[in-house]
Amino acid sequence: MDVNCGSYLKNYTKSAVEQKKLSISDIDRALHNLFSVRMRLGLFNGNPRNLLFGNIGANQVCTKEHQDLALEATQSCIVLLKNSNKLLPLKMTNTPSLAIIGPNANVSHTLLRNYEGPPCKKISPLQALQGYVRDTMYHQGCNAVNCSTADIEKAVEVAKKADYVVLVMGLDQGQEREYQDRDDLLLPGMQQSLIESVARAAKRAVVLALLCGGPVDVSFAKGNPKIGGILWAGYPGESGGIALAEIIFGDHKPDMRMRPDPSSGYPGRTYRFYKGEKVSSLATILATQNTPTSKETCKKAKISAIVGVKNDREMDGKHPVLLFVRQEGARKGSTVKQLIGFNSVGLKAGERAEFGFELKTG
């Protein structure tokens, strides 16, 4: 009752009251909550421009500090799903020419998802990548993100000329938004055909970057040796183009895992129940050491779990370490595992460290 979605309350509240399914006191409580918040915001105190937050504009919002924070948040959300033969990061000195192909390569508004505020700046992945390589070639590949038609022949020609290729594919609000759901998890239209054709024609393995909110099935790319790197970027916000380019060229190390889904619904859904083959899993625990306890001591106890982590890459970076619990001998239909703790660890190249989780039972 406190928040209306669409026209639901307008259409059904009167009928619910008449049928005594909803009381006037419930409506009064909802209105009290609603108007209390509006009063705290000062919405009844006169001209909003004369109030505390009435003159906040770009000069206050778009400070360097705020834009740096936006970039940091975006950097921390991009996930590296595949990196065969250490294709990434590309080196500027070894990348004389770069082809950027795909319907999401030269977009900026798609980066913002929906329900967004005005961005301070909009830089597309294409623009950001052009800042790293002087000789760049661009082709959209598809008529739009839905890719109902694709100029695969022209995209292949562009790919053949370049030393490296970055494909920026995925979804946009035309495929996923309120009142707009997808029928399947495949990339729309001819996107997969475009990706496979460009990868086959390219001189070297290509990089595939995905802009999308919901999941997409990229199992075809995971097993394709000509697709060397896969980056999942979500809808990364106004700094998304910059963050993608920085990760592709090594100015930032990707340190995020795929997001967990905490839903506890029908077994077979989410990481908590799913036992089948995965294209990209939520997490892999590298090493654990714990202290055994009896059933009696677990009723109210503190348990420590020590985790060893090593950064075996050539770059400094952060890594989120996730701790799961699994119940041995659980009955059919119980969860396979449950995420119960996480921590982000920053390590220099080659550095190893141990840190602990402290768990309380009972």
From TrEMBL:
A Pfam family matched in the record: Fn3-like
Cited InterPro entries: BXL, Fn3-like, GH, Glyco_hydro_3_C, Glyco_hydro_3_C_sf, Ig-like_fold
Listed GO biological process terms: arabinan catabolic process; xylan catabolic process
Superkingdom assignment: Eukaryota
GO cellular component terms listed in the entry, alphabetical order: plant-type cell wall
Glycoside hydrolase family 3 C-terminal domain ranges (all copies): 78-255
Molecular functions per Gene Ontology: alpha-L-arabinofuranosidase activity; xylan 1,4-beta-xylosidase activity
Residue ranges of every copy of the Fibronectin type III-like domain listed in the record: 321-360
Descriptive protein name: Beta-D-xylosidase 7
Lineage: Eukaryota, Viridiplantae, Streptophyta, Embryophyta, Tracheophyta
